[in-house]
Design goal:
It is found in: Cell membrane. This protein is an all-alpha fold. The chain is built from 6 helices and no strands. The N and C termini lie far apart (54 Å).
Length: 150
């Protein structure tokens, strides 16, 4: 597991370099990817299905990215992109297409459905966590402004 975690961290660094993330932020963006993959891995090994594991990981991406963006005063996408890439079901998409080419349409459709559901879970998890985080922050700011007026 430690080797996989190190590989995910290095993958996050490589993606950060590819997308020209500033050097001083590469550690944070790679850390986001490693933490997210660890959450996904723990969920899968605990018996959760791949879709739910991807959802949990993407919720972590959203919260961690929003937190780091506020802390470091940088755009959220710097942390989101390297964070969600370990969750992307690329192998499953390839397998679905291979099944279709080989004429195993039932397997192909089933694998494609799981791939699409996983992608949807990733998108919904990031959306949900980012929205909740921003609502909480805005509520706290509004509450602080209201108490200052009294």
């Amino acid at each position: 597991m430690a080797i996989k975690l190190a590989a995910v961290f290095l993958m996050g660094t490589a993606v950060g370099v590819l997308y020209r993330i500033p050097r001083h932020l590469l550690l944070y963006s790679s850390f986001t990817g490693a933490v997210v993959w660890l959450i996904y891995y723990i969920a899968i090994t605990s018996g959760a299905n791949v879709i739910f594991g991807a959802f949990l990981g993407s919720v972590a991406v959203g919260f961690l990215s929003e937190f780091l963006a506020r802390l470091l005063k940088k755009p959220t996408t710097i942390f989101v992109i390297p964070g969600f890439l370990p969750l992307v079901p690329g192998r499953e998409a390839y397998t679905a297409m291979r099944y279709m080419v080989e004429g195993q349409y039932g397997q192909g459709v089933a694998t494609a459905m799981q791939t699409m559901l996983t992608g949807g879970a990733i998108a919904f998890g990031i959306f949900l966590s980012a929205t909740v985080y921003r609502l909480v922050i805005n509520y706290r700011v509004a509450k602080a402004n209201d108490t200052g007026k009294s």
